[in-house]
Amino acid sequence: MFSWFKSQKTLPLVQEASYLEDFTDPANIYKYFTKLTGIHFDQKESITTPKLIRFARGHGCISFCALLDKLQVDSSVREALINLLTVNETYFFREKEQLDFLLHHCKRASKSLRILCAPGSTGEEPYSIAIVLAEGGFALSSLEIVSIDINTEAISRASEGIYTTRALHRLPQLLKERYFVMEGNQYRVRDFIKQAVAFRSCNIFEEEFLRLGSFDILFSRNMLIYFDQTTVEKAVHQLAQLARTNESLFFFGHADLLITPERLQDHFDHGIKYYTLKQ
Length: 279
Hints:
This protein is of the alpha/beta class. Helix content is 39%, strand content 17%. It is globular.
């Protein structure tokens, strides 16, 4: 009875090892993402790696190596990963003192102005700038605000201009009524404010950033905190190239700059810290 078994050809073993998942070392994914965006994940890898694993599986990859291969050839997967890992937590009138100082400066300038928000996230910052200037009597027709972000989902949300009550928690009720329309339990930015802001998907480290033109005022708040010092210097260099003049103003978040970059000169006025290009 054993002759039957002996007479059967032995089937080749399935190479199961090639189908086993391998998500043991995400180092090359982090290196690739940092090179792409400048963002580092030091001290945050333990909470970020599970997101990477779910992302890889969701895009049909059984290893970080396979994911890296796909990222290098598939722009839609790159965009999806950027949207997953870039943070867009903000609200209206954040760091309001800077915006009040901006209004004072713009009134003195009394000319048409171009303002850059890099990044502008989901729109709260550029819309806040437009609202503060409009409320202060500055003609929006003489103002152009350009808001960029590497996260395409954030740009889409910003263009829609629809926000929750939480995003507007610092706005007085009068301003909510003047600059927003209630839609159910959400707020939509009124059209005359939306028209003052142009949203673009853009990476500050790529050539397209330098084609945005020159600006009188440049905001870059809460982005540099994700960069190491070398990347901070590189980012500031990119921003500096878009300054219209040596008198163009730069505003950063309170935790963005530990030391003043080589290209910039810091200033203090009425408790507000801002920067201009070093003479």
